[in-house]
């Protein structure tokens, strides 16, 4: 079992490029349903916001494909044209990124709190389309819970400590 993700965000690509890979809620549902059918994909979650798009997958030992190539095929674009804008993470690095992301540490405005809701909504959408497996379900719930705990326990100003 493995966890991997690919993503494009405001740090790597301008809005015009990000828009090629952005998803409406309806399109995201169709995408996770399609990706879940790929052999070796156990579960998937797609997060699409104005500043980023991330495609997450939990895989079994038989998956040898590329999430990036699948995404480009799904979007009907050439993989060579946009590869430089994407980042790929696996295992512990991917998990670490998700917790930073949910906590607002990867946002344009450091610590913004909309992202924790968006991460939770991405999981809920995957759930609705029967695409989230127990691994991603647990991982995303823990990231959301941790982000909410940090936000409620962080002092608002030095005088609050």
Describe what you observe in this structure:
With 161 residues, this protein is an alpha+beta fold. It is 48% helix and 17% strand. It contains seven helices and four strands; from the N terminus they run βααββααβααα. It has helices at residues 15-20, 25-36, 67-75, 79-82, 91-102, 114-128, 134-153, and strands spanning 2-9, 41-48, 52-59, 87-90. It has a four-stranded antiparallel beta sheet with strand order 2-3-1-4, with helices on both faces. Helix 5 (91-102) packs across helix 7. The protein is globular, with a radius of gyration of 16 Å. The model has no long low-confidence stretch (mean pLDDT 90).
List the keywords.
4 strands; single chain; 17% strand; 161 residues; four-stranded antiparallel sheet; alpha+beta
Q: How helix-rich are the residues, as a percent range?
A: 40-55%
According to DSSP, the number of beta strands is: 4
| End-to-end gap | 42 Å
- Low-pLDDT regions: none
Number of helices, counting only DSSP H or I runs of 4 residues or more: 7
Strand order of the largest sheet: 2-3-1-4
Write the layout of secondary structure elements.
Layout: E1 2-9, H1 15-20, H2 25-36, E2 41-48, E3 52-59, H3 67-75, H4 79-82, E4 87-90, H5 91-102, H6 114-128, H7 134-153
Antiparallel strand pairs: 1-3, 1-4, 2-3
Helix pairs in contact: 5-7, 6-7
Provide a concise account of the structure shown.
With 161 residues, the chain is an alpha+beta fold.
């Amino acid at each position: 079992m493995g966890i991997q993700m690919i993503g494009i965000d405001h740090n790597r690509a301008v809005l015009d490029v990000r828009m090629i890979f952005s998803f409406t809620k309806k399109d995201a549902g169709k995408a996770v349903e399609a990706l879940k059918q790929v052999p070796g994909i156990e579960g998937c979650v797609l997060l699409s916001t104005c500043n980023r798009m991330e495609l997450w997958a939990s895989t079994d030992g038989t998956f040898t494909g590329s999430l990036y190539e699948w995404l480009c095929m799904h979007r009907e674009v050439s993989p060579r044209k946009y590869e430089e804008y994407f980042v790929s993470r696996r295992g512990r690095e991917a998990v670490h990124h998700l917790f930073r992301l949910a906590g607002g540490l990867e946002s344009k405005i450091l610590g913004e709190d909309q992202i924790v809701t968006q991460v939770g909504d991405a999981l809920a959408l995957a759930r609705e389309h029967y695409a989230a497996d127990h691994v991603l379900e647990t991982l995303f719930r823990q990231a959301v819970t941790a982000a909410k705990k940090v936000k409620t326990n962080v002092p608002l100003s030095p005088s609050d400590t």
